[in-house]
Design the sequence.
């Protein structure tokens, strides 16, 4: 499909001896919100780093805006990144700058706009996340939800084409969660963005996603629209969506059988 | 603390403090300026043995430092050490021509220095003159040797 | 035995790769540092946090070390009737040895560990990552100003340390123990050479500044971004830079002063 903004093909990646991805295929449709779901530790954040070119895959291709990311040089990569925004899990606001300067930072780096115009743009972005009044605060003075909204304003400061959310809803109280969900949806419609949400907050994410992938064990185990996933009879999907403690995705860390372990003649003198 | 102006001012003061300290080290601690700044006058004195005298050693008159050793050269005619003394300009035309120069040691183990003793002549030293009455350094080992050989003869 | 050999080999390999990585890191940070007014501002800020904020500890330690030197030196020298040489002893030990080394050790403890922790925290809170994604090279924006600030701050601190130390020595020697003031300064001046002693001391501190800042910044950039990783890296910074300073000090002393 030509309206795919990001295409990931047969991606392999490993950290040390541990394989994170073994053959992942997915694509992000232009102008849509795509969710990438999966249990903790399946490398969802790593996937975003690979799309942003911060990590090199072992093999496979990552194509963003029609360019092969792993092959890009330093300069082209920075060029490419100015067309994407990322909302990091922790917000990642620069702690030594005010809220205003944080949002203004990408504008100052990438454009040579006069300060008055930067001011207007920053205020527009801050207004969009409802924090225009907080512009002179330092990040340490913000609550978690506010910090994430400021980070969102910063991520969209340069009007990116692709916006990646890393666990945007994790650790939020219900009110700020609701605010964030609405914001993500509104921004996507208003700015014509392509969004990727990496999350394990199933209900919230699926409520706004157009399409979703479920990752487990380094592979895409299921994909489809939220409605299709809901209706899926696949065991892994049922376990994940239903929140069941045990199933194909094991609750127990791999080990020898419990009985063997209990009665093993283990040498206990090491301590 | 995050005020940019405060940062700039304190960093400037910091740098200035460092520079002032360097100047202090240069002039007060290592005496960098003293030899070049003082435009004294130079006289020469040749010694049979200068012992441990070094350039920049002190020259004293009645115990007061009045100059420094500027240079030490070997005289190839008599094989003597000819020492150029740089003396305080206030002493020009005040020291008699028969002033004596002796190499002495500060304490038992201290540095060598040159001590001047004025004479009784009517004429006075000017730049470029040389001192005739000189006394070489006392070498401790030689004294000990002499003492031992003398006492073994008894 | 073979196990032991393998372990040694693995350590060697790890050490070599770490050296290689840190060299590439150093080169990349310094190669592209922009010469704009914004870069100057960033640099000034770092000189403030590593230099000006370390000033108190340097002043206090310098003063006390100078005072102790004078006190100890006096009790030894007075036995030989050579207490006149106190100034020379204090000034030479400070300029050649104590000021560069002690200032570098204090700098590693005060500024080095702070640098590691700060950069580590930026890494842990994804600020470095986020800079990268905004399209700003964190090596240039975060690392380079810190490196350059460290290179400048430690030599300046060392010079201030020497100055305060000599003053402390004067305070104890002349003011308290009654060494003759003229002899104190003139002996110092006749034995301390600006080029041989003062400048060599400054050169030492330049080398230490380079090594300590490099270690501190690299440890911060290379650490595992967890709270445990940060505390380990901070400890490593202090240990490695102290060892490097003391080891290098021997080498530099052998090179500089062996023929004196």
Sequence:
């Amino acid at each position: 499909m030509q309206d795919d903004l990001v295409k990931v093909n047969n991606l392999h990646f490993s950290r040390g001896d541990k394989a994170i991805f073994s053959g992942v295929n997915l694509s992000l449709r232009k102008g849509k919100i795509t969710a990438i779901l999966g249990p903790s530790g399946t490398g969802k954040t790593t996937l975003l780093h690979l799309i942003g070119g911060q990590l090199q895959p072992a093999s496979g291709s990552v194509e963003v805006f029609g360019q092969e990311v792993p092959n890009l040089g330093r300069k082209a990569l920075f060029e490419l990144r100015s067309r994407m925004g990322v909302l990091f899990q922790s917000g990642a606001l620069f702690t030594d700058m005010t809220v205003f300067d944080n949002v203004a930072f990408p504008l100052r780096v990438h454009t040579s706009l006069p300060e008055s115009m930067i001011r207007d743009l920053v205020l527009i972005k801050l207004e969009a996340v409802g924090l225009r009044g907080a512009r002179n605060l330092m990040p340490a003075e913000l609550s978690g939800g506010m910090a994430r909204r400021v980070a969102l304003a910063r991520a969209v400061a340069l009007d990116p084409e692709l916006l990646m959310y890393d666990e945007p809803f994790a650790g939020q109280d219900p009110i700020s969660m609701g605010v964030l969900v609405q914001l993500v949806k509104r921004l996507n419609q208003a700015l014509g963005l392509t969004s990727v949400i990496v999350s394990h907050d199933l209900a919230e994410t699926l409520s706004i996603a157009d399409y979703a992938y479920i990752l487990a064990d380094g592979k895409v185990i299921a994909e489809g629209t939220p409605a299709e996933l809901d209706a899926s009879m696949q065991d892994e999907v049922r376990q994940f969506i239903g929140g069941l403690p045990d199933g194909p995705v094991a609750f127990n860390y791999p080990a020898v059988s419990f009985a063997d372990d209990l009665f093993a003649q283990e040498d206990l003198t090491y301590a | 603390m995050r005020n940019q102006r405060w940062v700039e001012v304190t960093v400037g003061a910091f740098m200035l403090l460092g520079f002032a300290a360097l100047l202090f080290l240069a002039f007060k601690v290592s005496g960098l300026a003293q030899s070049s700044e003082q435009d004294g006058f130079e006289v020469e004195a040749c010694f049979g043995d200068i012992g441990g005298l070094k350039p920049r050693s002190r020259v004293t008159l009645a115990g007061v430092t009045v100059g420094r050793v500027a240079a030490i050269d070997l005289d190839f005619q008599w094989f003597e050490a000819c020492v150029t003394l740089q003396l305080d300009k206030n002493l020009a035309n005040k020291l008699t021509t028969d002033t004596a120069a002796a190499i002495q040691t500060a304490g038992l183990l201290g540095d060598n220095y040159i001590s001047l003793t004025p004479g009784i002549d009517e004429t006075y030293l000017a730049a470029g003159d040389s001192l005739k009455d000189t006394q070489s350094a006392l070498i401790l080992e030689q004294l000990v040797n002499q003492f031992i050989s003398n006492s073994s003869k008894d | 035995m073979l196990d032991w050999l393998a372990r040694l080999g693995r350590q060697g390999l790890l050490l070599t790769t770490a050296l290689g990585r840190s060299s590439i890191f150093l080169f990349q940070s310094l190669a592209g540092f922009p010469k704009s007014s914004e870069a100057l501002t960033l640099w000034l800020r770092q000189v403030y946090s590593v230099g000006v904020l370390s000033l108190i500890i340097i002043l206090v330690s310098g003063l006390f070390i100078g005072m102790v030197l004078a006190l100890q030196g006096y009790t030894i020298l007075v036995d030989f009737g050579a207490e006149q040489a106190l100034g020379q002893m204090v000034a030479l030990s400070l300029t050649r040895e104590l000021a560069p080394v002690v200032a570098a050790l204090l700098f590693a403890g005060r500024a080095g560990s702070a640098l590691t922790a700060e950069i580590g925290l930026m890494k842990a809170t994804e600020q470095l990552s986020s800079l990268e994604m905004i399209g700003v090279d964190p090596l240039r924006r975060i690392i380079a100003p810190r490196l350059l600030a460290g290179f400048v701050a430690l030599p300046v601190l060392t010079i201030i340390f020497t100055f305060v130390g000599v003053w402390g020595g004067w305070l104890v020697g002349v003011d308290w123990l009654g060494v003759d003031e003229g002899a104190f300064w003139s002996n110092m001046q006749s034995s301390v050479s600006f080029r041989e002693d003062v400048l060599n001391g400054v050169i030492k501190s330049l080398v230490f500044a380079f090594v300590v800042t490099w270690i501190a910044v690299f440890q911060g950039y290379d650490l595992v971004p967890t709270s445990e990783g940060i505390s380990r890296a901070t400890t490593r910074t202090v240990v490695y830079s102290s060892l490097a300073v003391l080891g290098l000090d021997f080498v530099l002393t052998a090179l500089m002063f062996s023929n004196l």
The radius of gyration of chain C is 21 Å. Residues 35-257 of chain C form one domain.
